[in-house]
């Protein structure tokens, strides 16, 4: 039986994009600032990532407002909570992804969904469509595809972390399994996958910033076509987002080096 992740990883243009992104991460990890300040870089990267994730949802708040803790928009607050929560959920992600996603949704959707719905898969067939992707699959189909996603995570094997993270991200974004804050959860899960599956173990790469700078919804629509070309385009998009996230992290390092 063929490995679907291996098939995706071998699509035209994907190996080169993944390798370029991996090399960018390797260069970042050699930055001298990280010898003494990698936790501080990770914290700043997480803040910028949360800001970018909220901005993709239409809640664009300047960084200085976040630093002063003056952003009260529930989308922004949810993105900040989800970003903080990823640092506590890493050890659970491989073995219990269903529980991790439920927790991420609980913190991300607070104030956006009824308390009784937090952390629970949607029972409704409809889901909001903030990115204009089209109708979400019905609740039954979504549940089945989520089961398939969990099986994919469990059997990921030697698949490049970028490929796995991109598939996790896309499935959550297009399925919208909770019906609120799904995009924030999807991007947090992508970052968690990049960390826990070995590409970015210190969580330095602000991949969400890359998604904000690129044609994000357009790339997800390519994935939705289900064609090899469309899926490859999405993986290449995610690899480019990693590379741009490295650029953001490098800028953080440079700023810290200058004092």
TrEMBL record:
Domain spans labelled Fido: 96-237
Taxonomic superkingdom: Bacteria
Record-linked Gene3D superfamilies: Fido-like domain (1.10.3290.10)
Stretches the record annotates as Disordered: 115-138
Record-annotated membrane-spanning stretches: none
InterPro entries noted in UniProt: Fido, Fido-like_dom_sf
Listed Basic and acidic residues bias regions: 117-127
Compositional bias ranges of the Low complexity kind: 129-138
Designated name of the protein: Fido domain-containing protein
Native species: Nonomuraea pusilla
């Amino acid at each position: 039986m063929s490995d679907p992740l291996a098939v995706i990883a071998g699509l035209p243009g994907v190996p080169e994009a993944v390798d370029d992104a991996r090399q960018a991460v390797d260069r970042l990890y050699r930055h001298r600032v990280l010898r003494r300040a990698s936790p501080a870089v990770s914290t700043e990267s997480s803040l910028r990532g949360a800001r970018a994730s909220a901005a993709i949802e239409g809640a664009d708040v300047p960084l200085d407002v976040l630093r002063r803790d003056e952003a009260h928009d529930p989308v922004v607050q949810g993105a900040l909570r989800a970003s903080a929560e990823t640092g506590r959920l890493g050890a659970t992600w491989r073995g219990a992804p269903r529980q991790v996603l439920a927790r991420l949704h609980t913190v991300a959707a607070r104030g956006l969904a009824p308390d009784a719905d937090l952390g629970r898969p949607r029972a409704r067939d409809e889901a909001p469509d903030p990115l204009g992707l089209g109708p979400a699959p019905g609740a039954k189909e979504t549940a089945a595809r989520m089961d398939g996603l969990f099986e994919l995570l469990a059997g990921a094997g030697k698949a490049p972390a970028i490929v796995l993270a991109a598939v996790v991200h896309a499935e959550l974004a297009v399925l919208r399994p909770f019906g609120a804050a799904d995009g924030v959860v999807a991007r947090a899960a992508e970052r968690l996958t990049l960390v826990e599956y070995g590409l970015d173990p210190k969580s330095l790469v602000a991949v969400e910033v890359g998604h904000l700078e690129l044609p994000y919804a357009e790339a997800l629509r390519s994935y939705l076509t289900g064609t090899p070309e469309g899926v490859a385009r999405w993986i290449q998009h995610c690899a480019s987002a990693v590379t741009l996230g490295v650029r953001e992290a490098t800028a953080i390092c440079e700023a810290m080096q200058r004092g």
